[in-house]
Predict the structure.
Amino acid sequence: MALRFAPPWYFILLTAAAVPGFIALGFWQWHRGEHRRDVWQQFARSDVEAIEANAASLQELPLYTRVRVSGQFDTARQILLDNISRQGQPGYEVLAVLRLADGSALLVNRGWLQFSGYRDRLPDVAFEATGESRLTGRLSTLPVPGMAAGRQAPALSGPWPRVTSFPQRADIEAALGEKLLPPLLLLDADSGPGYVRTWQAPGISPDRNFNYAFQWWLFALLALGLFIGLNLKRVK
């Protein structure tokens, strides 16, 4: 008794399309992982010298650039970003407006504060900032949710601070009643008053992209194995 390999034409076409496709998707995820790893490594570097920045340059500098800015804090109005976890603990990130010399408003992330356990008792984030503050940090963006269902804009009226969940910049501008410069400044751990500042680059971990790559390559092997196994027939 011998083995005969006689796949039908449609099985050949399907496998010829699927296997290269799975391999290509694997390499695509791998390259995304490499790019994201480079971004994360660049973001994590603490020895990069901060660049002196103003309202004009803040609109042109690339994300994650370390900058030094000067301005006056608006201590009366702050935003609490809800649903931000650190090491499995729920909490808020505290945003404040820094008024630059030309009157432009820059949104500053003062750090993460653990949730108190009471939705009706917001944390006391008041602080004093007399005169000009000189701050350093990294340029970033507002956090985005995994699903759009987690988004909630801040209230347009009422007392401060105001709670919001994964807002867009326009939502915060509406609550503040003024335009903001495009970036968000993530304060360095030793710069200005604030809370926990263990920042990491936005987005998923590069390890997840690498895992996805291996999964796609495994699908390619599985498709090839099925193609061979299902089309080998015993003949007399």
